[in-house]
Amino acid sequence: MKIKRSILITGGAGFIGSHVVRRFVTRYPDYRIVNADKLTYAGNLENLTDVEKKDNYFFEKIDITDKKAIAGLFAKYGFDGIIHLAAESHVDRSITSPDEFVHTNIVGTVNLLNAALSSWQKEKENKLFYHISTDEVYGTLGSTGRFTEETAYDPRSPYSASKASSDHLVRAYYHTYGLPALISNCSNNYGPNQFPEKLIPLAINNIKTNRPVPVYGEGANIRDWLYVEDHAAAIDQIFHNGKPGQTYNIGGNNEWRNIDLIRLLCRIMDRKLKRPEGESEKLITFVKDRPGHDLRYAIDSSKLKNETGWEPMTSFEEGLEKTVDWYLTNTGWMNNVISGEYEKYYDSMYTGR
Ligand code: NAD
Ligand code: DAU
Q1: Which of 57, 162, 325, 344 reaches 20 to 30 Å from 78, CA-CA?
Q2: pTM of this prediction?
């Protein structure tokens, strides 16, 4: 079959990346999809077993901070599109080890920008560098308002500062060198395959195994939750219909205080595990707050809706049910990811052991 497009997806073995890879590989059989991933603790090829044998899917174990490896990858596949998700993504880890975030998220992004620029120097028509970013670059909100594409950047954690830096570099390459590039900034994702360092899978796993469910501070912080497949659908829309030089905010229009979300999850788990009502809530434990903890995120995604028609399709009720069912069914996946390094991380974060 003739290849219509050759697309590099970085970080495709991670949580969101694996859903994007699956969507592109299955919906676009005439696109060649190359997943380049270093397979850090967060990267897991088990996320992609259902598509790994497809003819249009290729995996390359590559570190985006390795310039030579990136040059070789571009020479081998001749990409015309890049969807860049590879990153260190967990705020708590960025507080204890910021250097890794600077290296991967900033230096890694610059390497990819340079490789794209050099490979597209003769012809920039029909090429696109699409950088996946976060709403955390905008900082924190009080009790009202929402982030728009015009909101000034105000990152407050090493993670969000590293993502903000990479966003600035992407825009600089667009303006200075004419690299066809665009960015989207999304709110909190949840769904199958998310590593259990993040709130929802960590809480599901702890409730299931009767461990304390750690809630930072008073649980009053608010996040805007989006089902991961809805994010993948937005990425698809933006990749095909977005305009270079533009930024698109993506959100779930679905704000929850952490404590209310955890209580809801406890009720769902009681029902699924056939526990008496209120049993799982007893596991909720308030712990020391995250330093510099952003109070509230909320996204205005009306620009994306007006330009492409995209809207979230999955209600929170439906998405949480699907997510809980996935984790309760895929116990092998969970057991594999919580062995080894995870226990050490968990103890250093939560038990002080
Ligand atoms: P994740 O941590 O689950 O996955 C990150 C992936 O990147 C992993 O597969 C990892 O192996 C890979 N990776 C890390 N360092 C690498 C390197 N040096 N070279 C190659 N690969 C490397 O992250 P996620 O939650 O899926 O997030 C993906 C992207 O989306 C990130 O850029 C993140 O900032 C952004 N984002 C995430 C959310 C969210 O709620 N999770 C929301 C908005 C934006
Ligand atoms: O907003 C988008 C961002 O969402 C992404 O850019 C990040 O990659 C992603 O990790 C996520 O960041 P958060 O810090 O919001 O997600 P996390 O799941 O770590 O935490 C969600 C909220 O829950 C936050 O207010 C901190 C709190 N929390 C988290 C954990 C892990 C707890 O109360 N207890 C916990 O154990």
Answers
A1: 162
A2: 0.98
Phi, psi of 271 (to 5 degrees): -65, -45
- pLDDT attached to residue 353: 75
**How far is 251 from 248, CA to CA, in rounded Å?**
10
Q: What is the pLDDT of residue 312?
A: 98
Q: What is the pLDDT of residues 166-224, one digit of tens each?
A: 999 999 999 999 999 999 999 999 999 999 999 999 999 999 999 999 999 999 999 99
Within 8 A by CB and 6+ apart from 276, the residues are 270
- Cα 98 from Cα 4, distance rounded (Å): 40
For ligand 2, atom 34: residue with the closest CA: 215
Q: Which residues line ligand 1 (CB under 6 A)?
A: 10-11, 13-17, 37-40, 42-43, 63-65, 85-89, 104, 108, 132, 134, 163, 186, 188-189, 195
pLDDT digits (tens, 9 = 90+) for 50-78: 999 999 999 999 999 999 999 999 999 99
Residue nearest to atom 4 of ligand 2 (CA): 188
List b or e across 5-40, with b for residues whose CB sees 16 or more CB atoms inside 10 angstroms: bebbbbbbbbbbbbbbbbbbbeebeebbbbbbbbeb
d(CA 216, CA 20): 31
Report which residue type is found at 121: Q
228 C-alpha to ligand 1 centroid (Å): 13
